[in-house]
Structure prediction request, 373 residues.
Amino acid sequence: MRILILTTDVWGVGGIERYSRSFCRALALAAPESERWLVSARPRPSGVADPELGCPILLTKGPKTWTARKLWLAATFPLLALRLRPTHLFALHINLAPLAQWVARMTGASYSIVIHGIEVWGILPYPKWRSLRGAQKVIAVSRFTAEMVRQRHGIPEHQFAFLPNITDLPLTDGQVSLPHVPTLLTVGRMAKEERYKGHEVVLKAMPQVLRQIPDARYVLVGDGDDRPHLERLAQRLGIAPSVAFVGRVSDDALTRHYATCDVFVMPSKTVLDPKRPKGEGFGIVYLEAMAHGKPVVGPNYGAPTEFLRHGENALLVDPDSPSEVAEALVYLLTHPEEACRMGERGRQLVAKEFTMDTMVRRLKNLLTELGQR
Prediction:
């Protein structure tokens, strides 16, 4: 078996980048006897080492701009594939699927495509739609995304496979040391085009939270072009002393933020506009919080509801309602025993369904379906 993997980026910190790394590591464990190679559409950033993936990363150099890189890949990747002669290609993003389809035809290989969320919920250009139709398997990270693609693009149900995100963070019991300040946490990009994540809604909920829990603190991890707007909003609402914008942090610092918070909150909104869809295709940060035994306040609609279960490991709210968000936050902060029980149920769900072991098991089954084992 000879497998060639094509991804957008394997060095970054976003959900798709982390998925790509997890996919490669799981594949190495699921098919250790195979030959495997990875090509990233993004070249290696200066000074950044290759992650341990269980396979070599090829074509790490090349043009830096995206337009030039696409042209360079279109010329270079087929030649590489003709030399390696893979039996199967995995495109880990729809943007790379047309290239994977083209190379598969050149080499006689089959190919599969991973779909994540908003990039496939809406109208697709014909080359991307055609590559979806021609894939041996369309691998969805959530059943919500699979259903959207089935309805929108007419992909038959038998063509789908399910391989969700995982977290490799250590599972902890969620306990925090005393004395302790009641702490709420959101982790996510603060981008204008990603306002659906709900930072603004949580900030608008904070005055109501602070009226009942005056010492509560809201920590926002992440950065982006919308951060100045959110900082000004905190000032206008008069809650700035209770809000901490900490920016992007190291993995160790992120782990500490998860460990010391009481509630993870991200009321991310899903909008199924065919031209400009918005929302979480999965939401790996919820898993990370659950791995730390934390209860979650999340949206009552969308892909995250597949594993965020109201009253069990989360409280699900209307993502447009600051008052609903505030009520859920106040409830969890004032009922610590129930919050602890929710956090523990979330931790148990992650241990059962969303670890590297489960991804390896699912990949083994997928490779059997693909005839690659």
Q: What stands out?
A: The radius of gyration is 21 Å. The first strand starts at residue 2 and ends at 7. The chain has a mean pLDDT of 94.
